[in-house]
Amino acid sequence: MTKKTEYTDDYEDKTLYLPGPTEVHEDVIDAMAQPIFGHRTERMTDLYTTIVEDTKEFLGTEQEVIVLTASGTEFWEATTLNLVDDSILVPTSGAFSERQANVAERLGKDVDRIGYGWGDAVKPEDIRDALEPGDYDAVGVVMNETSTGVRNPVEEIGEVLGDYPDTYFVVDAISCLGGDRIVPDEHNIDCIFTSTQKAFAMPPGLAVCTVSDDAYERELSKDSSSWYGGFQRCLDYYDRKGQTHSTPAIPIMLAYREQMKRMLEEGHEARDERHREMAEYTRDWARDSFDLFAEEGYESRTVTCIENTQGIDVAETVARVSEEHGMLFSSGYGDISEDSFRIGHMGEHTVESIKELTDAIEDVAGV
Ligand SMILES: Cc1ncc(COP(=O)(O)O)c(C=O)c1O
Question: What region holds the Aminotransferase class V domain (predicted)?
């Protein structure tokens, strides 16, 4: 049984280099500290319509956008319930893609996996081979496999999906959207979703999903779709009232409003470029001192997974960098926790701030 460990109000703030949650700008934190207002007021309509329309503008999409009080996991469930009658194809190459497959199984769907080794990327031709004889309602792909630092080629997979218009393309871009530019409309993507605590650099608590016209239509004809994450319910309510169907996390939406202003000011392309620079710096550093876990040519732009070729004590290095330098990065995921470690270079970070971390790791690990 878990025992209560009293929260003390006495914790040291750390600079976050996790693959999410990540650093949040202080203006965005401050934006949350306001008296709560009613969720059926004009003020709420102003807030919600602003964040939804600004998100469309930032992403450069004509698709509808839902901002829902939930973590991103909600959209694994909702997209499956809304779009999959019987079967879904899920290429699995790490912990999160495996979890996506598992969610669909739990919901009673037939799940066909294409199993790759951890660190390998999904290959578009394998998707084509599986779709040729298969009759899938949807293909679900994790764009950025956070457990391995692999960036899957969703643009090319989308091209394949273009030849299968009856199969919906669902993309989990939870650990990269906002830092790795992709326009869903240009790649036959029906739904792409993220969580606010990742490359959007907002507090956790909201999930964001785009919805193509086809995906919306499809859900209209089904009565087994998700209630909470039902596209119809969310989007029709937005259409009629400019609000959410249930009480939202208002403080986090205030933070969203503030951060989205900053994101629009920087622009999606400039943000993408800044993330590329951070990723390149981190990769160069990793290659000099260690090696990369991800298959060459498929390295993530927001999370680098570093293979521990020097046999450092990863858990101890993480702990000491936290204690001695006040910076928090991540060990490897699950079974590869000591064989690798991960640096989240997303959101508010810059090459300079990432360099501060790599200097700290060098200092502690002596590499
Ligand atoms: C690729 C991916 N998918 C899904 C999730 C789950 O996201 P959340 O914790 O916001 O539900 C994560 C979390 O790290 C992730 O990295």
Answer: 38-330
